[in-house]
Amino acid sequence: MMNRRQLLSLACVPAATLAAQRKLADVRPNALELIVVRATKRTSWFFVRIKTNKGLSGLGECSDSLGQKIDDASLARLRSSLESYFADIKDQPLSIESYRSRARARAKTGGHLEGTAFSAIEQAQWDLLGKALGAPVYQLVGGAIRTELPVYANINRATTIRTPDGFAANAQKAVEGGFRAIKAAPFDGFPKIGSAPAEQVVKATDLGIACIQAMRKAIGPEIRLMIDVHSNFDVKLAIEVAKRLEPENLGWYEEPVAPTKLEETRAIRKGIKQPMAGGEILFGVEGFAGLCRTKALEIIMPDVKHCGGILEGRNISALADLEGVKVAPHNPSGPVATAASAQCCATIPNFDILE
User: Fold this and answer.
1) Does domain 153-345 have CATH number 3.20.20.120?
2) Terminus of the chain with fewer CB atoms < 10 Å: N or C?
3) Strand order in the sheet with 326-327
4) Which residues form the catalytic set?
């Protein structure tokens, strides 16, 4: 038994928590920096660094926001977009929900570049929060339910010799490096269906299938092999190719058509045996809602760089969990997005594997 005063004393905020809140209130972002790193001939990484009045800095990543063409004009557009979102938090106390309430609607309707810029600023704020409070981000968003994450090697950009032997050699190299799962996109550069001559489509189809068969032969039956089609097919060809690939026991068949084509995606899933995955450039819970609720995909692939950031990634994963859909975050990225993805994945009950 206890009296009212004793009961209320149990609900008092500990002094340490009050001190942390006061400390956090004093941390205010005051400067933004865009860092461009040329990683390979095909890949550039874009990092955002937000500095504060207390000497702390937080990192986010907005790679793949500009596609392959990177020039002064496109970089100026990216800087302008980042600066517009940074203006929503400059000289303000750190509050990610306040940032989302002010800026999310603009990102949702602004297209890929806007969504990616919004996401980078969000990631950097989480980094600042963790540093200011002396806690890992996964602890701040609910706590870890795993301490190790399975990952797969995306060998696609590294495979410059786009032949069966070239794909097989890189797949084998990844396995020798310790990976137990591999992904490639041997249908890149596929002729446009509906306008390209039929013989070109047949030739490209046969080449892609031969590359997949060569990879499977090189790595053996125990390694998980995933194939990304990058939305190059239509429904008919997607089903035909999937049936031809059944002996290769694919881990998943990714985006044979664009994930925004919900009915076409559902039609393909109903017509094939392989698990389907997709959603790498979609923004927000709204972007994934139809795919999850109709179970058009077995696996969704939100990307912290594009989907709205770490908190949005968690919200998307919660929606997927309600529908029995797994989450394998898209992440052909630099080290900052990989670190942010790892913080998010540590907390997701329906997590599958990280790129």
Assistant:
1) yes
2) N
3) 153-154, 181-184, 224-228, 252-254, 276-278, 299-300, 326-327
4) 230, 330
